[in-house]
Design goal:
CATH topology of the largest domain: Rossmann fold
CATH architecture of the largest domain: 3-Layer(aba) Sandwich
Radius of gyration: 57 Å
Order of helices and strands: HHHEHEHEHEHEHHEHEHHHH
Number of helices: 14
CATH class of the largest domain: Alpha Beta
Strand content: 5-15%
Number of strands: 7
CATH superfamily of the largest domain: Vaccinia Virus protein VP39
Mean pLDDT: 85
Distance between the termini: 162 Å
Structural class: alpha/beta
Helix content: 55-70%
């Protein structure tokens, strides 16, 4: 494995802590491989050796130790190796390729390398895979995890955060290198991202798949072909069980786009329908408004005619009142003329005699009624 520059090597542990994540986080992520180890252990010797190449801070070594494996880590960065030794883990400070060359054939049951192959040149990687194939036992297991360039976030920028990275390796390429090195059974496992939320819309799912799904991937392989069909399905079954969406699956992405187009078309149709409904409602409202305006105009005309009639009637009544007042004034003037006339003064005694006669004749009548009333009671 190419050595890092001296200056980068002294701060690389700090770089890992900031950009790779805490030891606890990485250790938790790596637990996903434990079922695969249990399956592999069924075909290995009880004391089978597990080698972790480029063990870094020792998260995987610690898990192997907790699960009872006899494990050795290999780390070229001296600062990282010393940090791992502080946790009482078995580690060798050496170049991983040279270390493998020094191992006996079929001496290891498991070989792992987490986030190592992206640091290597192609020639170094091919040599490394050939040595892994030689050192593994016939039923041995290989696990190689690396950043997934299918994910746009990884491929476009996060991969390049690490200045010691060489180049990203697409999953089909690394799987090809593994199989070309003699491994008969291999599967790609996409992981360490988030699958889209089913409640999201197609466009959100499309973006989530491209930018959030499967930030890393691993190639898991066995040295020899499986003896039974059941064994043959174990690697692929594991991959199917834990893998996240493939960010580069054009068929699925196109399907999401078609769903998006379908939703947009449906939304447009619904919008047109709403607009037509609104146009129809607007027409109805305009017709209703026009009808009400016509009714209001007719009612205004009727009220104006009624008001005009009342005004005419009031004018006639005022004219009649004026005529009556005029007649009254004429009568009053005539009576005043009669009362002040010579004939009214001459005939005054006669009028007085008539009023006296009425009183004289009215008294006997009252007396007669009184007498008759008393006789009828007696």
């Amino acid at each position: 494995m190419p050595a890092q520059s001296e200056k980068l090597s002294t701060i690389y542990r700090q770089f890992e802590d900031r950009f790779r994540g805490s030891r606890d986080l990485i250790k938790e992520r790596l637990r996903i491989y434990l079922p695969l180890l249990e399956s592999a252990a069924e075909h290995l010797k009880i004391d089978a050796l597990a080698l972790d190449l480029g063990c870094g801070r020792g998260e995987w070594l610690e898990l192997l130790s907790e699960c009872g494996w006899r494990a050795i880590g290999v780390e070229l960065n001296l600062d990282m190796a010393q940090a791992t030794e502080d946790k009482s883990l078995s580690i060798v400070n050496a170049d991983i390729l040279q270390f493998l060359r020094d191992q006996s054939d079929a001496s290891a049951g498991v070989i792992t390398a987490f986030h190592v192959v992206e640091h290597l040149s192609i020639d170094y990687l091919i040599d490394l895979l050939q040595q892994c194939h030689r050192v593994l036992s016939e039923t041995g297991l290989l696990i190689l995890e690396t950043p997934n360039p299918e994910n746009l976030t990884v491929g476009t920028w996060s991969f390049h955060l690490d200045p010691s990275h060489n180049k990203p390796l697409p999953p089909p390429l690394l799987a090809f290198f593994v199989q070309a090195s003699g491994f008969k059974d291999a599967a790609v496992v996409r992981l360490n991202g988030t699958n889209p939320n089913p409640e999201e819309g197609p466009l959100e799912q499309f973006a989530s798949t491209l930018f959030g799904s499967s930030m890393d991937y691993s190639v898991v392989a066995r040295k020899s072909a499986p003896e039974t069909k059941t064994d043959a399905n174990k690697l692929q079954s594991f991959a199917n069980a834990v893998s996240q969406n493939n960010p580069a699956n054009i068929v699925e992405l196109k399907a999401l786009f078609r769903n998006t187009d379908s939703q947009i078309t449906t939304s447009q149709q619904e919008l047109w329908k709403q607009r037509l409904d609104q146009d129809g409602l607007r027409t109805e409202l305009q017709e209703e408004l026009r009808r009400q305006r016509l009714e209001h105009a007719d009612l205004r005309t009727e009220l104006q005619e009624e008001l005009r009639g009342q005004r005419l009637e009031q004018a006639g009544l005022r004219a009649e009142l004026a005529e009556t007042r005029k007649e009254k004034a004429e009568i009053s003037a005539e009576l005043a003329a009669v009362y002040t006339s010579t004939s009214w003064r001459i005939t005054a005694p006669i009028r007085n005699t008539g009023r006296f006669s009425q009183r004289v004749f009215r008294a006997p009548l009252k007396l007669l009624r009184l007498v008759l009333g008393r006789l009828s009671r007696g």
